[in-house]
Amino acid sequence: MKQRTLGTNGPSIGAVGLGCMSFSDVYGVADDDESVATVHRALDLGMNHLDTSDMYGAGHSEEVVGRAIKGRRDDVFLATKFLTRYGPNANRSNWMTPESGRYQDTSPEWVPQACDASLKRLGIDVIDLYYMHRKLPQVEIEDTVGAMSALVAAGKVRYLGLSEVSPETLRRAHAVHPIAAVQVEYSLFSRDPEDELLDTCRDLGVALVAYSPYGRGILTGTVSRDTLRDAGDFRSVAAPRYTEENIDQNLKLVEAVKAVAAEAGCSPAQVALAWVLAQGDDILPIPGTRRAKYVEENAAATEVRLTAQQIATLLDAIPRDAVAGERYGEAGMKAVNL
Where does the record place the NADP-dependent oxidoreductase domain (predicted)? Predict the structure, then answer.
């Protein structure tokens, strides 16, 4: 696995990481043993950047990751996030529903409690990269990051990160404590970071960690209407780009990715990932999967080199305004770029 540096002063880690949200039944029921085997395969390939959150499965993803890295802590650069608090009846089945008793909290009082809970679920003593999962309008970023910086001083966290914040928020946070990474959705289908955020990250020496580099799977070329009928797959009900009125137009756009893949001799998924990697050495994509075969495919994408003509073909075929639907529903879009 090729290596990339996390920001200006961070460690060298795998150029492609592993997103672990799918360990929490979000794309249908996950098999924990399979998820553990997937992490093991990723580590064997040098894909040492693992990304999870206390939200995924109401902590279940963290527990699975903790099980997977037991005895291999030195092989891992581990990132997790805080934001969502749950009631006593929350579990991996209801974590996205009101029945879980979920609510959001980024107060300085909650930050150390959330960190301790994540450390316990993960079975580790220190988190390598700790993110605020979203900014809440009612909590000043200086207060939250101040509490996060105390975790660094206490030796519980090594680096701080933010997710889906505005350039202004990033600058304010960075003035309190150095921010190592900003996590944001970035793919051929989601180009918002190119407006100003990416430039701000580069100005401050902050890495951009790109989640959903496959547009939640659609850019892999494996998604169809039949895919969305799978029980428990949230995309057909919660992801606007997968809804009945938008899916056909978006699937047509993927044909260009398939054509470039055929020319390059690789899979559409590898083309989509190679495109993100080609946007700069300071960008670290974290495609999510719970299957070892896709980990292998993602690792091999680091060897794919798209030509200038192939990149131009992709951008001509998929201009920013061509994608139908927002990346989140109305409530989700209100929570980003704050």
Answer: 16-314
